[in-house]
Design brief:
The structure is a homodimer.
Chain A lengths: L23 H9 L35 E6 L5 E4 H6 L3 E8 L22 E10 H8 L7 E12 L2 E10 H5 L6 E6 L2 E2 L9 E3 L12 E7 L6 H5 L2 E2 L8 E2 L6 E4 L4 E2 L6 E3 L2 E10 L5 E7 L7 E2 L1 E2 L10 E9 L2 E11 L24 E5 L1
Parallel strand pairs in A: 1-10, 15-22
Antiparallel strand pairs in A: 1-2, 3-4, 4-7, 5-6, 5-10, 7-8, 7-9, 11-12, 13-16, 14-15, 16-20, 17-18, 17-21, 19-20, 21-22
């Protein structure tokens, strides 16, 4: 008898056929992982349990008493730190808006088959931890190192490859003041919840979620760029499956609207009364402050400027915005779009790639005014 | 011009056509609401953010400084309690397993179109609050009262009916020692998270989730049975749309298995190595203690007994169970089923009704041993 192989249950990435409904596999991911309920955009810091979560494999069991962070590879002094040693180092707190690289994927046509986000894979938290550069300075990075590889405790199979979850960062972002990478042990003033990486995770402000390795067990300095699955196979911008593709890194600008009025349970269409309707939301970019938010009540045919909060002390946290809409009876589609200080702006037509990554197509909120 | 009406965006309940994939409306609910990631069955008390959540409309904004609970209707002394007054009353803490009445709906054939749960809409928390009967005794329930109606602050449209979320309980469960209904202000030792009803919710141990009204604003004693939408239209067991149907109340027995080994990302199929594989999970029933858990590795053709924890001091909390499986190479389907002290047992064929309620068909966990 031929023994079964992983390829039986773990198949290559694919794009849905035209008109193909959401499959059982996509649904199983959607019932586990969750986005930010959009009314929770009202909170500047997202309360526990409302921040988006994507877990590739299982949330690992973690024993804080035995947890170790190993820092090794091309360093002068390998480190083996327990949680008490990490917490004894000087910590900083940074407010960071985090977004899944696959946010918006389920609205793409054709649809890449993976976690089927609509627009809600985002959240903002106050992360407290030790700057990565503090620990790397203590270990002493050797001159031949080019990247740091981060390994999490979550283990699984993905597209045929069995793996611990691993990602790397070039030494520039890993050791620089900007974006100021953290080894975070605290979220919103409390120990990390299990699904957010308890007891230790990486936080890479301004980068999509795949960079923020959870359940962090080791940091390994390497002399050649890392080619692991999550770096070289997943999280690349590709039009064709055999392209090398550019890596997914920083968060493209996006504005979201907290849907006004009240919803219909099943369609989630909003209902508002005629007259002035306050509109509010948040906007962010991993490339720089948001400098303009526009909104539209006609599906993007015409736009008006919203009032945006200036960037605060946390350059990688979202900024609030407000506007007022004079609603008249009928069906409408509300949208918002953000522009950042680098001139990047959200597109009105979908930026498609096979992974559905970095897609910041403007949101559409259907509204009935009656 | 004819003005638009709510019926344009809020349509009657329906059952999916044969082979109809999960729709955009079901996906929008699945990305907002979330289940328990099944590996989190390892925790006796579910950590924040992992307990299942179903929000019918929006999570309302709540100002604790102005929040009031009004107790009125057929009472001798109407009450208007602020949070400080409620917290000053004697509180109790109860460990309660809560499950959505629609758990398992998305596995039904044909599939009722609503929140598409697979098997994960469950969680267990320590709820602290004031017994409802304490507050009702203070108000003095008049002899002509037959039910208490509970109104939450969430507002929306559902199947064409605009409403505040409202449910009722007969006076027996509302005022009795069993199941011991709570006005809960604390979850796992902390203020309720917004999505779990902050600042105040009802907890009805042993009943499906629809009874545990969140964001509770009022308790009104009434002299005739309540006929609001969530009582008389939704949450009834019906085979045909025009039936009256029996009301959904207590939780039917269920065992869940924490899937062993590690998962494939996309299919969520489990991978284990040949040899002994520890199996573990939780089982519960709203009708009484679980007295037997059996497990199967061949899709339910043969069954063996698991070892179950005896019921502890919390009669409405789940009980752990364990077994050991000798895995051999190949494809397998693991299942578990619970029986409770009343003799109720999980079915091997789907208990179908139009709402997909109270469906405790046994779980199937696909596993590859290689």
């Amino acid at each position: 008898m031929e023994l079964p192989s992983l390829g039986e249950v773990s198949t290559p990435g694919r794009v849905a056929a035209p008109g193909e409904g959401i499959g059982g596999d996509e649904l199983a991911l959607a019932t586990r992982n969750h986005g930010l309920p959009l009314e929770a955009l009202r909170y500047e810091v997202t309360p526990p349990g409302l921040h988006y979560v994507l877990v590739h494999y299982d949330i690992p069991a973690a024993d804080p008493a035995t947890w170790r962070l190993a820092v090794g590879g091309l360093v002068d002094t390998p480190l083996d730190l327990d949680l008490a040693a990490l917490r004894a180092l000087p910590s900083v707190t940074r407010r960071v808006t985090m977004e899944c690289a696959g946010n918006g994927r389920a609205r793409l046509s054709p649809r890449p088959v993976s976690q089927p986000w609509l627009v809600e894979a985002v959240g903002t938290a106050d992360w407290t931890g030790v700057p990565l550069r503090t620990v790397l300075a203590e270990a002493g990075v050797r001159p031949d190192a080019v990247e740091a590889v981060f390994t999490g405790a979550d283990h699984g199979v993905e597209r045929g490859t069995e793996q611990d979850h691993q990602r790397s960062l070039p030494l520039g972002p890993a050791t620089g003041e900007d974006p100021g990478v953290l080894l975070a042990h605290t979220m919103n003033g409390r120990p990390l919840p299990p699904q957010h990486g308890y007891p230790l995770r990486l936080v890479v402000p301004g980068w999509y979620g795949m960079a923020h390795v959870k359940w962090l067990r080791s940091v390994t300095l390497v002399g050649t760029p890392f080619t692991g699955f999550q770096q070289a196979v997943a999280y690349r911008f590709r039009q064709e499956p055999d392209e090398l593709g550019e890596p997914v890194t920083r968060i493209a600008p996006r504005a979201l609207l907290a849907p006004p009025g009240f919803p219909d349970f099943m369609s989630r269409t909003r209902v508002v009364r005629p007259g002035p309707v306050p509109l509010a939301g948040r906007a962010w970019s991993g490339f720089g402050p948001v400098t303009r938010v526009e909104w539209s009540a006609d599906g993007g045919r015409s736009w008006a400027d919203a009032v945006i909060e200036p960037p605060g002390p946390h350059p990688y946290a979202w900024q609030g915005w407000r506007a007022e809409w004079q609603a008249v009876p009928g069906r409408h589609a509300l949208s918002a779009r953000a522009r950042d200080a680098t001139g990047r702006v959200q597109p009105l037509e979908q930026p498609w790639n096979r992974g559905g990554f970095g897609n910041n197509l403007v949101q559409q909120v259907p509204v009935l005014c009656c």
